[in-house]
Fold:
Amino acid sequence: MEVILTRSGRSALLLGLKALNFGVGDTVLIPNYICNAVLQPIRHLGLSPRFYRLDSQLNPCLEDVKEQVSLANGNTGIIVVNYFGFRQNIAPVLDYAKRCNVTVIEDNCHGHLSALGNDEIGNAGDIVVSSLRKSYLIPDGGYTLLRSVSLASGTDLNLEVDGNWPSYLSALAKSRIKTEIRKYPRLEIAIENSFEKEASCIPPLMMGTASFLASRAAKRTGHFTAQKRIQGYKKAAAHLRKLGYEPMFEAQLLQGAVPYACPFQVESSQELVQVLKLLRGRGMRGHIWPTLPLELRNDKRREEALLLRRRTGIILLGHK
Structure:
């Protein structure tokens, strides 16, 4: 296994997709409740997105996944998401993907600080992508974890997603992650020790001693961040209950999950707007998420995605 630092979650996803050696027209399955940013690397590589449904609790609908796999062209991968720092029920999808030779890409951009017992979230996919900046409140930084695939020698490591994005090496040179991460000395030492000395080399973080130290350091340095997020979730949950609503996934806090946000659901878009207004009046940062991708416009799963978006609000926690 190998971990490679990137500038962002988007760059991490692009690198993971490149590691698969998928060609133009190969298929990537994506949940229909998804941020538009996830589609940028897929468009960049000329891959074909297909959307699958989620249930009201954001779990993948296995039967729809099977239908989309049956309609896929060429090689097939599927993106599963740990929404808001909580694990969804992805086990049936993992089992099915393994039997059907479908590569699983685990989007853990919200869940870097989370763990369920000893089973760390972000350790299930063949490829895992994450966003350090979302966890540590630094300007940029992410990583790609290659668990069951390897980055081929000679892989083009230009991670330019659109015209405004520099190449990977340029982004790394300009990145502020190494400066910001000095606030967390143990994490800095663990990561710096794993870098190749040559400036022209991509800095791999191999699974082993260096990775163990980095993981342990990240958990230690993330302690106060994690506690702040958990306290923020509990505060947000209390406000929601005063308004007559229940937060989602609260039971996972007892299993070690660290929330990126406090999600909740209502009955209609009008009600959601009203609740968010009330929450903001109480000092809570309530939002409607996500910005849905344009590719959903002509997909029959668009209505289900819009319904989830109209009914699901989030309260951001510990963000600048």
